[in-house]
Design brief:
about 110 residues, mainly beta, Jelly Rolls, four-stranded antiparallel sheet, 2 helices
Length: about 110
């Protein structure tokens, strides 16, 4: 999990793709947005088509398939007054297996 704090509209993340070598390219990337509403821009690399989503408090965004191959995404700066926002991004690392163990007592013992 990756956590980012955007304190206000001057905090942003430039357009990028989550395509690092150590990420599982077949696993979806999930992002939970907490706090102020912020724009999330997705831009197709070839066509330059741009889509902007408004991520509200508690929203969940899933990116899968070719998203990181054909497009970039980011959180642009804004001059509008906005409060803080936290982004929690969940990504699976390559070579990691997914546990199917569901016994809550055992999971608590691990932590």
């Amino acid at each position: 999990m990756l956590a980012n704090l955007y304190q206000d509209g001057s905090h942003s993340i430039a357009p990028h793709a989550d395509d690092e070598d150590d990420l599982d390219p077949d696993a979806p990337i999930l992002m939970v947005s907490l706090g102020a509403v912020r724009k999330f821009a997705i831009k197709h690399r070839a066509t330059k088509a741009r889509h902007v989503l408004h991520l509200e408090d508690g929203s969940l965004l899933e990116m899968r398939g070719l998203t990181n191959t054909v497009a970039t995404h980011g959180v642009p700066k804004t001059k509008q007054p906005v409060g803080p926002r936290i982004s929690l991004t969940f990504r699976r690392m390559a070579g990691r297996s997914v546990s199917t163990h569901t016994d809550p007592m055992s999971l608590a013992e691990i932590a």
